[in-house]
C-alpha cells in the first residue's frame, strides 16, 4: 500500500517528502540533545553559523538549527496543503511564510528561555570564573568579535557571549574555560585542551 502511494507521487512531492522527513528526524535529535544539555546546533559539524555578528537578540539567524526549522515548517505545510492548494506558486509562498514564522517563533522561544536563564546573573562573577563548557557559536580570535559559549554553573547549562584572546578562532564544540567575567553576560575564555598537563 505504501509502495503504491509512493509510486503515485509526483517527483517534486517525493523530494519534498524525503527532505521533510530528514529535517523532522534532525529536529527530533536536536531537541533531545538540547534537553540533555548537549550542543545540538553544531554537532553535525556543518559550521553554518556563518557570522556571529549576524544575530537577532542572541540567536544566530543563520544557524543550522534555524535552517532545519525552516525546512520543517516549509515542508510539512507544503505536504499538508498540497491537496487543497492547486497552484504551486501559491503553495510555495504559503510554505515559505510558514517556514519563516516557525523560525521566528523558535528564535523568540530561545530568547525568552535565555532571559529566564540569565535571571541569576547577579552572582555571575562569583560563579562563572573557572567554569568549563563548550563553544556554541564560533568565537573570533584576538577579541575581534563575540561568539557564544555554554557553561555549566550550579548544575545548570547557561549561555553567554564570549571573547577570546588567542590567535585563531575557537570553532563550535571546542572545550573552553572561563578566565574572566567582563560584564553581566560576557565572559573571557581560554581553550582548555591548550592548557592540559
What would you say this structure looks like, in words?
β6 and β7 form a beta hairpin. About 11% of the residues have low confidence. The protein starts with a helix and ends in a 6-residue tail after the last strand. The chain is elongated and about 60 Å long. By secondary structure, it is α+β, with helices and mostly antiparallel strands. 43% of the residues lie in helices and 21% in strands. The chain has 2 domains: 117 residues, no CATH class; 75 residues, OB fold (Dihydrolipoamide Acetyltransferase, E2P) (Beta Barrel), CATH 2.40.50.
List keywords for this structure.
197 residues; OB fold (Dihydrolipoamide Acetyltransferase, E2P); 2 domains; two-stranded antiparallel ribbon; 7 strands
Q: Would you count the extended β strands for me?
A: 7
Give the proportion of residues in helices: 40-55%
CA-atom Rg in angstroms: 20 Å
Strand order, sheet with most strands? 3-4-5-7-6
Secondary-structure map:
Elements: H1 2-7, H2 11-35, E1 55-56, E2 59-60, H3 64-81, H4 88-117, H5 124-128, E3 132-137, E4 147-153, E5 156-164, E6 175-183, E7 186-191
Parallel strand pairs: 5-7
Antiparallel strand pairs: 1-2, 3-4, 3-6, 4-5, 6-7
Helix pairs in contact: 2-3, 3-4
